[in-house]
Amino acid sequence: MTDDCKPDDSNPDRAKPDRAERDENEPLSPDDLAPRLYEVFAVLGPLYRRVSRKVELNEPIEGLSIGVRAVLDLLRAQGPLTVPQMGRAQALSRQFVQRMVNEAAAHGLVEAIANPAHQRSSLIRLTDDGRSAIDAVITRESALLKRVGGDLTEADVQTCVRVLARMLEVFEDVDVN
């Protein structure tokens, strides 16, 4: 970029460069970042609600509510956990997670086992039926996600996850109980 193309910060009459003029690899100022992150929320909310609805519509087929599905998926990814650990990991109340664990246990999808670190807080783990159920869900959802296609790159996905994780950090202090 030549010097005559660079914005002249010493000239107060010169407007800030618009989006097309900015280097997309330069960090945004907080004033410019906030409205861009609102755009993320504007997409994320409807996406979350549609995915949730899709899971709800499949409940008669799979027998898994969205809450039970979330518990099974977390246990699949992380192994045995306590109910409070699951609540913290998913930003859900312990009471809600306990209800989902109870529902999953009633269907033979999870079981409580002794917790060597804490006698009064059992670990919850997947049963073979629970693993089969969540594996089937993940397989079907993966087939659906393959339809996203397009020109998305590994860097795009890494950036998306990084942005969402940074946004989540801002709300870490929100009490979900």
Description:
With 177 residues, the protein is mainly alpha-helical. Helix content is 58%, strand content 5%. It contains six helices and two strands. Strands 1-2 form a two-stranded antiparallel ribbon. The longest helix is centred in the N-terminal third of the chain and has 33 residues, at 30-62.
How would you spell out the order of helices and strands? HHHHEEHH
Give a quick account of the main beta sheet: strands, pairing sense, barrel closure: 2 strands, antiparallel
Number of helices: 6
The strand order across the widest sheet is 1-2
Number of strands: 2
Instruction: Give the DSSP E fraction (strand runs of 2 or more residues).
Output: under 5%
Rg calc: 22 Å
Average pLDDT, to the nearest integer? 84
Secondary structure class reads mainly alpha
Percent helix: 55-70%
Shape: globular
- Low-confidence segments: 1-9
Q: Please report the distance between the alpha carbons of the first and last residues.
A: 52 Å
Provide a compact summary of the structure.
The chain has 177 residues and is mainly alpha-helical. Helices cover 58% and strands 5% of the residues.
Task: Kindly list the characteristics that best describe this protein.
177 residues, mainly alpha, two-stranded antiparallel ribbon, 6 helices, 58% helix, globular, disordered N terminus
